[in-house]
Design goal:
By secondary structure, this protein is of the alpha+beta class. The protein has 2 domains: 5-33 and 65-286, Beta-galactosidase, Chain A, domain 5, CATH 2.70.98.10; 289-716, 2-Layer Sandwich (GH92 mannosidase fold). A hairpin with a 4-residue loop joins strand 13 and strand 14. The longest helix has 22 residues, at 452-473.
């Protein structure tokens, strides 16, 4: 985002930034295309949402943060404008209450809020203007109007670097708003150590910090230690006109580790050095994908989405290898320990993208999940389904295999068979081949139940995913059992209505039945019948047969995108409608590609183009998204779709080819090979695929192209 921030910064600092930044730039800059504010603005247009927002509602669109982060970092340093909001920052706000050091975008984290203040009132926070705000990968800057302080932020994997330029060199203070975070703060501690160090702990997420300030601390004023309305203020010595710099290390283990993280990653480095290193890390990652052609907006959206795809999972181990494990005990390993992926969402595409570009991170994420499985008995899940099965099997089948696959497989089998663990109602699923829902009179959007249809469909796919590992390991017995269970999705299909429909415990269909009405967890998980009725990514041939063949399937799929949404059906997260199709949430994100399976990719492309060109970068400022980014799933969907290939069944090591937005895509693989995708014609209807000059049979290309390199030519008309 362009602003006049250079007018605010000191001339010397601007010169240092410009000189150091220029030295570190690659020949072609890709960070210049990234707008970190995309996803922070609200989506308000009822024509896009599908309904008028009720009074007081903010749509769950985007929920991203604009601050500084390295790829998959522990420290994600960003402004806080609204506690309790998705990622802490909402573009329509004009007050900043602090700068927090962790993030995700799921109404959690946002730990250790720090705010420079000067002559404050009894309420903390400052007005700001987007005119005096700037951000790029690894950097954030804003001017705090009320305190007359220019703030610049950058970061490393485990440490943050604050730079404060106070207009008034008298009464300079720094607020540590310790009782606040998006996650519940259970307690907190803080202390001054010598003249330049403040260290402490914030309970709940249990984050430790060690902060080094270049200006002498006269005193640390602490109010209501450990309480949620408590805080601390560091009063700095007067007189100096130099910027105040605060370097802070984080750890989820100890203050000592936080200190070591800071010393090892920042140490005596200058702000501009750390910023430049952050920029270069993002240049290295983003330059993996290089494109020719396309519009400026399409390039901005591609690289902004690619950027957001690499913010989660987040690192949790320290430089010495220690981390706090799932049992809240300090452990140490020979791999980097990460948070679990946002699996209900990201297994579909983003976890595949992570493996393609950062296979070492993907490997360590799997090892981290295995560590949880060893200690808790089950591979972790997130929110719904058992999609660690797909993430792990997909990575394994793509060659990310330097982990204990046999041990991991045994835990995945336990996930798939043992009640009380990763899969709720698994005993009923195994016995009946489906999960029922109760007979409830007049159910409403928030009716609590089993989400039996969604669970059955998703467990069937999870079974298929585990079966692929069984096959590769030669476990024929479990392969056959799991593959048979992968057909359980068919048990939810009602041939009379031609929908995936809820069943009672006795097997009867639930009545009355309204396929357009959305539920959070009655029959469907954050969806209606339309949105789940095209989900069987592992067996599209079988799914099409349920509809009576290609003609019946096409007719039903056409209706998905054309039957009008009822604006009276309002459910958070079920938003941004094309007919009954919901781009703003994940359950039907495979549906636009489904026309490929009946030989009509041009119909898929028409839907895909509409979504990419109209439902990303929405609004007057072009900063709104069609739904929650959900830890990067929405972004990864765009990246794959814009580049012309999509992991339709993320478990399988192959990609469904579409028509890219760009004339040429050059992808540098993790082993140094080059995959070039060329689109010599302007047409948007897929006609033919050629791999290394030879006509490709079908619409899929194998993962082998990323191992060996290839030239893929997309012939369109």
């Amino acid at each position: 985002m362009k602003t006049n921030f250079k007018r605010i910064l000191s001339p010397l600092f601007v010169m240092m930034l410009a000189t150091t930044f220029a030295k570190g730039q690659t020949k072609n800059s890709y960070t210049k295309y990234v707008n970190t504010f995309i996803g922070t603005a609200p989506l308000t247009d009822p024509k896009i949402l599908g309904y008028e927002l009720p009074k007081g509602w903010r749509s769950w669109a985007g929920l991203t943060f604009p601050g500084s982060s390295l790829p998959n970092a522990m420290v994600q340093l960003s402004p806080m404008t609204a506690y309790g909001s998705g990622a802490g920052y909402e573009y329509e706000d004009d007050m900043i209450y602090g700068f927090t050091h962790t993030n995700k975008g799921h109404w959690n984290l946002c730990n250790i809020p720090i705010l420079p203040i000067s002559n404050p009132s009894n309420k903390f926070g400052s007005k700001f203007s987007h005119k005096n705000e700037h951000a790029s990968p690894g950097f954030y800057q804003v001017y705090l109007d009320d305190y007359q302080v220019n703030v610049s932020l950058t970061s490393t994997l485990r440490a943050g670097y604050h730079r404060y330029e106070y207009k008034n060199n008298i009464d300079r203070q720094i607020l540590f708003d310790m009782g606040k975070a998006n996650s519940r703060v259970s307690t907190w501690e803080i202390e001054k150590l010598g003249d330049h160090v403040i260290q402490g702990f914030q309970g709940g997420e249990n984050v430790y910090f060690y902060a080094l300030i270049n200006t002498r601390i006269k005193r640390l004023e602490i109010t209501k230690t450990g309480q949620r309305d408590g805080f601390a203020i560091a009063h700095l010595s007067d007189g100096s006109n130099n910027p105040v710099e605060l370097k802070i290390g984080l750890s989820f283990v100890s203050i000592a580790n936080a200190k070591e993280n800071l010393e090892k990653e920042i140490g005596n480095k200058l702000f501009v050095t750390v910023k430049n290193e952050a920029t270069q890390k993002w240049e290295d990652l983003l330059s993996t994908v290089q494109v020719k052609g396309g519009t400026d907006k399409q390039k901005q959206m591609l690289y902004s989405c690619l950027y957001r795809s690499f913010l989660w999972p987040a690192l949790r181990s320290d430089v010495n290898g220690e981390f706090t494990d799932v049992n809240r005990k300090v452990a140490k390993a020979d791999f980097a320990y990460y948070t679990e992926p946002s699996l209900w969402d990201t297994y579909r595409n983003k976890d595949v993208l992570l493996g393609l570009i950062s296979p070492k991170v993907a490997l360590d994420v799997i090892k981290s999940m295995k560590d949880v499985g060893d200690k808790r008995g089950f591979i972790p899940t997130f929110f719904h389904g058992d999609h660690g099965a797909s993430t792990i099997s997909g990575a394994y089948l793509r060659g990310i295999d330097d982990f204990d696959i046999k041990g991991t497989y045994q835990i995945l089998l336990k996930n798939a068979n043992v009640e009380g663990g990763a899969r709720p109602h698994i005993a009923e699923y195994i016995k009946k081949g489906y999960i029922s829902d109760p007979d409830i009179a007049n159910p409403h959007v928030e009716t609590k139940a089993k989400a039996g249809v969604s669970k059955t469909l998703e467990y069937a796919y999870d079974d298929y995913s585990v079966a692929q590992i069984a096959k590769k390991l030669g476990d024929t017995a479990n392969y056959r059992i799991l593959m048979a269970r992968s057909n359980n999705y068919k048990n939810m299909f009602d041939p009379t209505t031609r929908f995936m429909r809820g069943r009672l415990a006795n097997g009867n269909w639930i009545t009355p039945f309204n396929p357009q009405y959305p539920y959070y967890e009655y029959m469907y998980r954050e969806a209606n019948a339309w949105q789940v009725s095209f989900y069987a990514p592992h067996d599209m041939k079988g799914l099409i047969a349920l509809y009576g063949g290609a003609k019946g399937f096409e007719s039903k799929l056409d209706s998905l995108f054309t039957v009008p949404w009822n604006p009276n059906y309002i459910a958070r997260n079920v938003e941004t409608m094309i007919g009954q199709y919901c781009q703003g949430n994940q359950p039907d994100h495979e549906a636009p590609f489904a026309y490929h399976f009946i030989g009509k990719p041009e119909k898929s492309q028409k839907i895909l183009d509409y979504i990419m060109n109209n439902l990303y970068g929405i609004g007057n400022d072009g900063l709104a998204l069609s739904g929650m980014d959900d830890a990067g799933e929405m972004s990864a969907w765009y990246v794959f779709s814009a580049l012309g290939f999509y992991p339709f069944s993320a478990t399988d090591p192959e990609y469904l080819v579409t028509v890219p937005l760009f004339d040429e895509v050059r992808w540098r693989t993790s082993n140094g090979k080059i995959v070039t995708i060329k689109k010599p014609r302007a047409g948007r209807a897929l006609q033919e695929i050629r791999v290394n000059g030879k006509k490709n049979d079908g619409y899929f290309i194998p993962h082998g192209v990323f191992k060996k390199g290839a030239v893929i030519t997309i012939i369109s008309k």
